[in-house]
Design a protein that fits this description.
alpha/beta; Rossmann fold; UDP-N-acetylmuramoyl-L-alanine:D-glutamate ligase; Protein-Tyrosine Phosphatase, Chain A; ten-stranded mixed beta sheet
Amino acid sequence: MLEQKRFHFVGIGGAGMSALALLLLQAGKEVSGSDLQMSSYAQRVKKQGAKIFLGHHPSNLRDAEIVIFSSAISLDNPELRLAREKNIPLMHRGELLADLLKDKMSIAVSGMHGKTSVANMLATALLRADFQPCVALGGESFDIEGNAYLGKDPYFVAEADESDGSFLHLSPTYAIITNIEPEHLNFYKSEEKIIAAFLQFSRKVKEVIFYNGEDRKTKRILEELEFSKKVSFGFLPENDIFAKNIQENGIATSFDCFLKREKLGRIEIPLLGKYNVANCLAAIGVSLHLGLDFKKLEESFRNYKGVARRGEIKRRDEILLVEDYAHHPTEIAAVISSYLPTKKNSGGRIITIFQPHRYTRTKFLAKDFGRCFEKVDLIILTDIYPASEKPIPGVSTDLISEAINEKEGPPTVLLPKDEIVDYLKGIVRKGDIIMVLGAGDIGELSGELAKIKIR
């Protein structure tokens, strides 16, 4: 670990930044940080002893010995400017994570979708098998009660963030690749550059790559790499680890798990969707490789609590209220499909509330967004959550609405965020499934939606 004692984080309120800050605090380092608002992540870091400043100002640096920043922070940020003037070392969060991993048996979870869930499933399995790994997640785990855990064992489970290319700082012992497809095109510009980045990442893996054997682009990379130590997972018997006889009961999913065509047993997890089965298989593959007993895995998944905003059930009575981080067309379609059997049993409708995330993603993937909602009964769209982006002329939620209409999709309503709850109060009925989808602040509506009275 770095020798400095006093760390300052510019943009400490994000999931990834706060996880690193928490690990440093637990290791006995002094931590301060700044952000534009006091997020739940920033609040947790503050409770653990960090000094948090609202807003970015040079005075926030005080006696910092090193400054950590993320790609969301402008290089013209006043705190970064002062750090350069005073020759205070600057380090990107990806570089800090790489430093924390370098002396560990690291498991880096990569891929466009499912990283947080897979990392949490693996970390939870290790902890329940009496391992003591370090953990850094991009979401809030109900199993480890946070997004970071400093264990005493040499193992370290971390998400490898491809969104800004920072996963290329890592040289993990093991890696998981969940899937690869066009995403983060604001950074990569083309699909070929995405493929090239994952190929470069894969070449840096020291031991074994666990990969989705049914993801065409991932298979292409592994074939080009000619990497001998690789383990595939999926639903076909051609994979090293695969699932069969998948059943859902509206609350949980169960499946038979096979390794090299030998049945190991049956897994049950309180989540829905085939994509969550794939996530389980990825975690199972690494767990077995590290020597975990399958019976321990059965117990771990049966008692799995999950991650906030990843299929999180906020209400289950006359209606079902689901909150999910899904913000890419593939993720949205997967979440919707996982609740179609529930809809059939309830006799209600699926109503999706979707807040697009980033202008660039809306611009590049508008047509795909137009297709991913085809199985719902009503779509409520609200304004784009910009994240760190500036508006792009001609890019708005209207692009998605138009794409849906072109495909003769479900009825679509465009509403300001603060009008959505009142609108739903007038139309929701018993048996409906309401989905709150998006990576921005749309989850703020869940508390009010959970209180809606059904007529």
